[in-house]
Amino acid sequence: MKKSLLIAASLAAAASLTLSACSSDDSSGNGASQATETTTTTAQASALEGTWKQTNSADPSRQMEAVITDNTITINWPAFDAEGKPIYWIGTFDESAAAQGGTITSTRDKSATDSLLLASTSDTKDFTVNDGKISFGVSMQDLSMTVEMEKESDEVPTPTTVRNSDAANSFENGVLETAKLRIKITDSRVIHPGEPGNEYGDKPVIAFYYDITNKTDEDLSALDWAFYFDAFQDNNPNTVNQLETGPNPDSELSSSSYEKIKKNGTAQGAVAYYLDDEVTPVELVAKIFPGDTEIGRQTFPVS
C-alpha cells in the first residue's frame, strides 16, 4: 500500500520527442520522391528510439521513464529506495505510425507484466504523438492523470530492462526462447535405479540434458532451468501430479551447474525428475519467470 501511494503521488509525466517534418507536396508520384519519403519516414521512426523522461512531475527527482526500441515501449515508475524502477507498461509501439503523429494504440505484453504488482492491467493503451511530444493516461486507485515525456537520449538499455516477451517467448521442438535465455533440450532418457545417473535411487527418473544460452548481462547458470520448467504425469483422475526433482544425473555437469554464464555464452546442464510410473508420458511445461504463465508444453514418452 505504501508503494501504491508513493506512485500515485508522483503521477505526472509527459514525453516529448522531436519529430522532423517530412511532408511532401509533390503529387507527381515519381520513384525518387517516394523513395525520399520512405527514407525520411524511416529516419523519423528511428529517431523515436531511445530513453524518454517525464517532464511534468511535481517532483523533479521522481520521474517516470520510458524506452522505445524495436517497436516496443517499456515504461517504468520512479525508483523506490534500492528496489529499482518498477515496470508500469510493456507493449507494442508502431514507430513508423508514431513518426506521422496522432494516436498509437499499444497492446500490452501480458506475459511480461501479468505477474508484476505495479504494472497496468489494461489490455491496450493509447499514446498521443503530437508536436514532438508523447502523452498517455495513467490511473491508479482514485487518481487519473495525463503523463508527458521528452526524449532524453538515444541510449537503449539491454533486454534486462526492455523486452517484449510475448513476441520472444516460445517453447517448440525442445527449444525454449525468452528475452533472457535460450534452452535447447539435447537429449532425454529414462534411467532406472542402479543405472549410471541414478545409482542410489529407488525409483526410475526421466533425465533431460540441455544447452542454456544467456542473452543478457543478467546472472544466469544451468540451475536456472528450475525457474522455467515443471514436469507432470497425468496419472491421477482427481489431482495434478507434479513430479519431484531428483539428483543431477551427470556428476560432471552437476559440478559446473553453479557457474555463471557470460552474455551470449552457452553452458550444458542436466536435470532429473522421479517417475511415478513407467507408462504415463511426462508433460514438460515451460513457464514465464517470474510468474507461472505457461509458454508451451511438450510430451516425452517413458516406455
Task: Summarize the structure in words.
Keywords: Signal. This is DUF5067 domain-containing protein. InterPro entries: DUF5067 (IPR031989), Immunoprotect_excell_Ig-like (IPR029050). It holds the Pfam family DUF5067. By secondary structure, the chain is α+β, with helices and mostly antiparallel strands. The protein has two domains: 152 residues, no CATH class; 132 residues, Immunoglobulin-like, CATH 2.60.40.1240. Strands 1, 2, 3, 4, 5, 6, 7, 8 and 9 form a nine-stranded mixed sheet that branches. A five-stranded antiparallel sheet has the order 10-11-12-13-15. The protein has a three-stranded antiparallel sheet with strand order 14-16-17. The radius of gyration is 24 Å and the shape is elongated. About 11% of the residues have low confidence.
Write the layout of secondary structure elements.
Elements: H1 2-9, E1 14-16, H2 31-48, E2 50-54, E3 65-69, E4 72-76, E5 87-92, H3 95-99, E6 102-107, H4 110-113, E7 124-130, E8 133-140, E9 143-153, H5 165-168, E10 170-172, E11 175-177, E12 181-191, E13 205-214, H6 225-228, E14 229-233, H7 251-256, E15 266-274, E16 282-287, E17 294-300
Parallel strand pairs: 1-9
Antiparallel strand pairs: 1-8, 2-3, 2-9, 3-4, 4-5, 6-7, 7-8, 8-9, 10-11, 11-12, 12-13, 13-15, 14-16, 16-17
